[in-house]
């Protein structure tokens, strides 16, 4: 390991540094408002040298987005142990950690716009959504998700995104409450869906099977599942 | 009123026609895949004449988007009469009518992309979301929405968007079921939120006050609201 602070960096190392510097700047201001000059200055190199490592602003932004997407995706990984509600709550805590650290960058990215609204950026965001979807389906223990299950999970992912964006804008509700509320939202949406679809009801029963009496899901979903026929409208 | 079919159109009339032609083409294929040549041909005029009315493709697309946004916003308007659940269901039916008619155009727009992902397009989409939000808040009879209410309504709007996009992609669940499910989703999310916030609970009670015993909300929300203290985690 080299320890000299001023040594010459290799190409990959320099690219990594520029990405890290860009992400740090994007965590305080929207990518649209951050120039290559600022990134160069914060990295302690010249503007032309930045263009040596990245052909343009868009490429550096996309590399930063790819790094952030990988980091967020890694946060979705949760051991398949213990009650499902507690697992989902831990993932929500890590998701909000990410959202809090990346603030303006996350917000600009999810809302699109000139600096961040490219087709490749959209594809990377969809990749993160897909990873979230697959993680949840795996935790639910469903090898072949039904259309109804897919709908519940994917629409809940968008609900979590919107909740996080509103939290960044307003900060009017503590994030710890929103993390818990999102877990309960998932349970409520799954239970509503179960009223329409017997296979979805099986999934909800499986979700509940491992829940302790004081778990995140148990009481809420249990009561919803005991709703009588009239609410289970076809 | 002029009735001649081949008469010369005025500027506004021609612009209206081009917008209508573009929206019709976008209802079958993504805007990215529709050229100005095709729009000119479908309108029965030359390509240069299209550019006489719209300086570029982007301007015509944005004019078409503005028209579609106005049309969708108009569909949110619902008389303040009768049970809230039934009102919301009628709005959902009109929303899915719109989504079904505009199919690929709606899908491309909501997912962003080079042809439709401009800042102005994003602002128009946000305008439609804001109109949906304001309509719902007005129906709930809340003059000063709390942060929690704002969160529930805005995140439910994103849930409805995601549900509609998945329906367009898959068509695996009948839209009539999804329209009803979305109304129940709203009730479930409001009820979950009420467990965290006494003012939100008041809103839910108001929602329920006008509901008939067999209404969309009554049973589902009523049972959720009767959940005992342990679920109402702070």
UniProtKB/TrEMBL annotation, chains A, B:
DNA-binding interval(s): 35-54
Pfam families documented for this protein: TetR_C_46, TetR_N
Protein name in the entry: TetR/AcrR family transcriptional regulator
Transmembrane segments: none
Species annotation: Streptomyces sirii
UniProt entry keywords in alphabetical sequence: DNA-binding, Transcription, Transcription regulation
SUPFAM superfamilies, alphabetized: Homeodomain-like
Domain HTH tetR-type: 12-72
UniProt KW Signal keyword: no
């Amino acid at each position: 390991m080299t320890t000299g602070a001023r040594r010459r960096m290799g190409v990959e190392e320099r690219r990594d540094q520029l990405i890290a510097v860009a992400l740090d700047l994007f965590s305080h201001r929207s990518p649209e408002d951050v120039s290559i000059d600022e990134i160069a200055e914060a990295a302690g190199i010249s503007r032309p040298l930045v263009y040596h490592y990245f052909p343009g602003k868009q490429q550096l932004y996309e590399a930063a987005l790819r790094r952030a997407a990988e980091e967020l995706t890694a946060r979705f990984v949760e051991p398949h142990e213990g009650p499902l509600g507690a697992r989902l709550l831990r993932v929500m805590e890590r998701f909000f950690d990410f959202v809090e650290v990346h603030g303006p960058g996350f917000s600009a990215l999810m809302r699109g716009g000139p600096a961040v609204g490219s087709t490749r950026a959209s594809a990377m965001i969809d990749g993160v959504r897909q990873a979230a979807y697959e993680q949840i389906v795996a935790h639910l223990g469903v090898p072949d998700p039904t259309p109804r299950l897919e709908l519940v999970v994917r629409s809940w992912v968008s609900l979590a995104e919107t909740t996080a964006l509103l939290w960044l804008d307003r900060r009017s509700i503590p994030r710890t409450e929103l993390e818990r509320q999102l877990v309960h939202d998932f349970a409520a949406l799954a239970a509503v869906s179960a009223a329409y679809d017997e296979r979805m009801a099986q999934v909800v029963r499986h979700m509940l099977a491992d829940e302790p009496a004081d778990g995140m899901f148990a009481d809420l979903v249990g009561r919803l599942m005991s709703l009588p026929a009239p609410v289970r409208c076809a």
